[in-house]
Amino acid sequence: MTNLINIFKNKSRYTNTIFHKVKNILEKSGYEISTTYNESAMLNLVIGGDGTFLNAVHLSKFSSIPFIGINTGHLGFYQEIEVNMLEEFVYALENREYLIEELTVLESQINNKNINAINEVVVKSKKNQIIRLKVFIDGNFIESYAGDGLIISTPHGSTAYNLSAKGAILHQSLNGYQLTPVAPVYSNLNKALKCPVVLPNDATIEISVSKRDSHHTVFIFDGRELSTRDFKIKIGVSPKKINKLILNKNHYWTNIKNKLM
Question: pTM score > 0.70 for this model?
Answer without folding.
Answer: yes
